[in-house]
Design brief:
- The chain has helices at residues 14-17, 24-27, 48-51, 105-117, 147-164, 186-190, 192-206, 225-228, 230-246, 273-291, 322-325, 331-335, 381-390, 424-440, 462-483, 501-504, 508-517, 541-558; strands at residues 39-46, 73-82, 88-89, 94-96, 121-127, 169-177, 214-217, 250-253, 312-320, 347-356, 361-362, 367-369, 396-402, 444-453, 490-495, 522-527.
- The chain is of the alpha/beta class and 559 residues long.
């Protein structure tokens, strides 16, 4: 089935469709078209983390930002073939909705894109867990579940149905999340970039869309595979990134910072789960909207510089992983907490800058202290600062640097084999730049300390838990050398580590305590009395507020 490529960003197939194109062609030249009568079509394809494995539609109500996505979205068209042996098929177009009680990234993607563009959306999805690009998805020699011809047939039949219904449409993008299974085959792993390039080229050729844009979802490094199979995950990521570097119509979409399902017995998992899938889809939406110049961003600007020229400013640097970022601390839950309403209000008397999610969300210079729009979440910095101010601390500035998908090894001076996951150089640069910018404003700067919350995933994986204290010590020592501050204070906070018999043989709390005892400028903060939490590793809004207060208390005692 051949389709004429009628304009650069997409296609409208068949001779019948030509009767309905007079207004579509001109509107497509700028901004991917603004004619609200043209349906924007997106393909979603890949393996289990594209399917939505281990997510549950019934859990959507737990995540306030995404309420309603467990229900059908009338007016958003959906055509799908999902699964391996026992495939679930829409058999034509239906309303976008969870399939078999599972949440896929297309749900949050479509809601955000349709809201930002005011355009009708259609999604064609073909995905199956445990499938390979080198085999199942190979367009030249499909094996196993023969996903490429299956997906192509689904695309062709779905588009043909739109044409028969005289619906004008334009194909806008191809969302791809796959690669974990290729890392178990040496040939597939080594040739992932080459195979992906061929995969993209074949889709463009078969659809006669030479400018079809692809969005490659990053493999999630927060999962157990991101730890115990770090070199293999890295190899796949390098293949993906090389394709994105060399093809201007391919975007690499970060996803390692999003939520991940909490598994048993140690908390680590292989899949995003419900929250992660909802954020996963939002990331695709951000990438697409950015590519067409329509990504909304709320401006958070300081009305005036909050410090007088010559005044000394105390800079507090907060850093860490899942709970310092605030993975499951939702603003809506904070709103329900008695006596915490003050934490919700921006404070223009404090300058604030941040890099969240490993650089996924970066402040535009210094902003008023408060809550940026980062999946509707917040971190312990809110209650931390509130506690400091309650004790009369003034002239504060806050800089926050986090990556929810990192492990402690990423923060060490030497890093790991996964070079592009190395956070230490960027972190030190971030601190230096923050100090320099405050000085450039005419203020003296006291670096009051670095407040680092220990990596949660590390506590659930034996080799990482074993090396945690040493790695933290290496990071602290090198940071003092690199910043030229031998007396720089570090406040290292720890929540209760994963409680599993085989892991408890490693008393990581005591090991970090020994580190602090041997160094008068390092303070261990034992945050072991946080409110009871329902999940391992991650804490919700009440625990996040309590964590900030514990850290502040440690600072006020030791300063």
């Amino acid at each position: 089935m051949k389709f004429p490529a009628l304009f650069p960003s997409g296609l409208l197939p068949g001779a019948t469709a030509l009767l309905f194109l007079s207004s579509a062609h001109s509107s497509a030249k700028q901004g991917h078209g603004e004619d609200p009568s043209i349906v924007r079509v997106f393909f979603f394809a890949g393996q289990s983390n594209m399917v939505g494995s281990d997510s549950k539609a019934r859990d959507v109500s737990r995540f306030p930002r995404y309420l309603g996505l467990d229900k059908a979205q009338p007016g958003i068209r959906f055509s799908y073939c999902i699964g391996r042996q026992n495939k679930m098929r829409s058999e034509g177009w239906t309303d976008l909705q969870p399939v078999n009680g599972v949440i896929g990234p297309e749900l949050s993607f479509a809601r955000k894109v349709s809201g930002a563009t005011r355009s009708p959306i259609a999604v064609i999805k073909c995905a199956a867990g445990g499938t390979h690009l080198g085999g199942d998805w190979n367009p030249d020699d499909p094996m196993g579940f023969k996903m490429y011809p299956l997906a192509r047939k689904l695309v062709e039949s779905s588009l043909a149905e739109l044409t028969r219904s005289k619906i004008r449409y334009r194909i806008e993008g191809f969302m791809w999340h796959q690669g974990e299974n290729d890392m178990f085959n040496e040939a597939y792993m080594a040739n992932y970039g080459k195979n992906l390039k061929n995969f993209i080229a074949r889709w463009r050729a078969d659809l006669e869309l030479p400018r079809l844009r692809f969005y490659l979802g990053e493999l999630c490094t927060k999962t157990i595979w991101g730890m115990d199979l770090r070199p293999r995950m890295y190899a796949i990521s390098q293949g993906q990134k090389e394709v994105a570097r060399t093809d201007p119509l391919v975007d690499y979409v970060p996803t390692s910072h999003v939520g991940v399902e909490i598994g048993n017995p140690v908390g680590l998992h292989y899949h995003y789960g419900t929250l992660g899938q909802l954020q996963h889809g939002e990331n695709y939406a951000d990438a697409y909207l950015r590519s067409i110049g329509k990504l909304p961003r709320a401006k958070r600007t300081l009305p005036k510089w909050p410090y007088e020229k010559g005044e000394k400013v105390s800079l507090f640097v907060l850093a860490g992983h899942r709970n310092m970022e605030g993975e499951r601390a939702f603003v809506e839950d904070l709103e329900k907490m008695d006596g915490r309403s003050g934490l919700l209000v921006d404070d223009p008397t404090i300058a604030y800058k941040y890099s969240l999610g490993g650089g996924y969300e970066i402040s535009e210079g210094w902003e008023p202290f408060g809550i940026p729009d980062f999946y509707g979440t917040f971190g312990p910095e809110l209650s931390f600062v509130h506690a400091l101010k309650a004790e009369g601390k003034t002239n504060l500035a806050v800089a926050k640097y986090t990556h929810s998908g990192s492990q402690i090894i990423d923060w060490t001076p030497e890093g790991s084999i996964a070079k592009d996951r190395h956070l230490y150089p960027g972190f030190i640069s971030f601190v230096k730049q923050s100090v320099a910018e405050l000085k450039a404003k005419g203020n003296g700067v006291e670096l009051a300390g670095i407040f680092y919350h220990v990596g949660e995933n590390d506590m659930s994986f034996h080799p990482y838990r074993r090396d945690a204290a040493k790695r933290i010590g290496d990071m602290i020592a090198q940071s003092r050398r690199d910043l030229g501050m031998p007396g720089l204070k570090w406040y290292v906070s720890q929540q209760t580590p994963t409680d599993v018999e085989r892991l408890n043989k490693l008393d990581v709390m005591s090991e970090v305590g020994k580190l602090a005892q041997s160094d008068s400028f390092t303070v261990q903060v034992k945050a072991v009395d946080l409110p009871p939490q329902e999940k391992r590793l991650v804490i919700r809004a009440d625990g996040t507020v309590a964590l900030g207060e514990r850290i502040a208390r440690a600072y006020l005692v030791k300063k």
